[in-house]
Amino acid sequence: MDKNKYIINNLNVFWNKAQVLRSIDIQVPSHKILGIIGPSGSGKTVFLRSLNRMNDLVPEIRVEGQILLDGEDIYHPECDAVSIRKRVGMVFALPVPLPASIYDNVIFNPGLSGIRDHKKLDLLVEKSLKSAFLWDEVKDRLKTSAMRLSGGQQQRLCLARVLAMEPEVILLDEPCSGLDPISTAAIEDALRILKDTYTIILVTNNTKQAARVADNTAFFLMNEMVEYGPTEQIFTVPGDKRTNDYITGRFG
Q1: β-bridge pairing 18-29 and 4-15
Q2: Which of 52, 132, 200, 244 would give a disulfide with 33, using CB separation of 3.0 to 4.6 Å?
């Protein structure tokens, strides 16, 4: 039996008086990819940001319920949000490289953590860029500006920057939105390999992407989780008609 990285019990999230997530119960196995699909506005991103307490940064948001990370309640008053975000890295929909060199982008977070050993940083940069399937494309220009990279390369650089933190979990919020098929394939290839080391949770509006890379899939609709199970089952014999309608494009 797979060990669960996350156990989420009765998660409810409110934006002012509006409830944006209702009664979410889900267990996320370690070293697997969880795909989260559903129409825009269904609560996917709010759910994702609850997993590393990014919602704390929005004063209007209130979170109720329990999220256990390796058995630790991440919303317990004595739990440090900063330490959670070091353990749970996040890649956003739009790549946001720092206006600095490729090398400095990757070492940004380790540098903040106090790592100053140049040999260790060099090895970390190489390892992170290789894991993000970017090393071969940039190894001869690490000191050039990250802003000169293509959109797909910038997104893989953002993934490398997260990997350099050496987290336990990687959250991805539509990381391939707007990317070309080649860049999308590179990121998907990276995720398939990375799950051997990390637990990965991927929000995507591309149902075919979820079918390709996710081990398990959750379907969110109108702020609730309608269905959750092995991806093959969800995409072949879904238990809810709304899931089938969404996957087949008949939703509406």
Answers
A1: antiparallel
A2: 200
